[in-house]
Amino acid sequence: MVSILNAFALFAALACPATAVAVGDDKSNPNVIVIMADDLGYGDLGCYGATDLKSPNIDALVAAGMRFDFAYANCPVCSPSRASLMTGRYPETVGVPGVIRTDSENSWGFLDSHAILLPRILKRSGYQSALVGKWHLGLESPNRPNERGFDFFHGFLADMMDDYYTHRRHDIEYMHRDETVIDVEGHATDLFTEWSCDFLKTREGKTEPFFLCLTYNAPHTPIQPPQDWLKKVKQRESGISEKRAKLVALIEHMDQGVGQVIETLRNTGLQENTLVIFTSDNGGQLDAGANNGTLRDGKQSMYEGGIRVPTCVVWPGKIRAGSRSDTRIMTMDIFPTICAAANTRFEHPIDGVSLLPILTGQAESLEPRDLFFHRREGGTRYGGLIINAVIRGDWKLLQNSPFEPQQLFNLADDPAESTDLKQKNNKKFLELANALRAQVQRGGQVPWQKLEK
Q: Which end of the chain is more exposed for a tag (fewer CB within 10 A), N or C?
């Protein structure tokens, strides 16, 4: 563990001090690594307040760059947030308003063939792109990673694994290496860590920049940590419940994997010119034992606990270590941020905005904008209808069930979202309701089911 933490210490030492270095001075474009956890709760890291959980490697990564206290996933579930990461768009505008599943009768998205994904844009600047881990944006052609711009794919296509060791979903093997189905042994977290490290080793000494997207399926259900990690947590945390102990162990195991990836980055001599982003696709799942801190609710919900996620960005020499931002950002902002850092232009419109001015100290905040959240889902709980939300400044309007009224909150005065102000401030309610309705109409222009030829 000491050598892994030393890798983060080196990151911090290379990070810029009180003043920022101007972007664009480098002769070479930076390498880029995005690490996305799956269902990681806002309060399930030591640096975000967890007291029964040890996450030294991710904590050190956060300390080496800028931490965002108000980072939002574009959706409280998997597929839509991943669509926003890859496209810089609101997910419903690229055909992914809900979860893409192996069961076509309960699948609520189909990635738009016209959507332009991040690896395809970065290719213009000579980037080699790899996706390791969970894809969850399509099970078949034409929506597999290699067909949508990635040069290399080593991971899992489907929504979740029924077992971290057998890697199947409904008895079907969805683990791939590029277009080839593979059957491998080992815990999925260990495999994704190993494959990411292997990719980094292939980049040692290469002049072309790379983009590595490492998307763990941890700590998504089933909560299945290696037994030695579970034993360690139980021995350390007196009185911890079995449910919570399993989730803590699964997260701590993932934390070690993140440390191994950063250590490999250092050992290959790539760390000085690598931008690293860590985030989660949505909030933690409460009935799986997640901790979302003081935020209300969790995964699947439009309350803050479902959409606020731990997020940091590290770039040695460009981003001041130990810096923090209270600017509200979204998953879709990662796309233009990476493009700006990579000096890569694109002509098509997107919804995200570059965070580079904030990261480099050239600005303290972004221009005011509305933040929209949208999810379509099935079953009797949703009936194929949508839930949604909009944040404008400190005001938030949400509908957490298609069968319940909308609610209005002021997040500055009421961060726990406990007092509905719709009746007291009808003017603000109507303003946000109109804005939200217009966004629903905008998303409705894009098909979210596969069109039959």
A: C
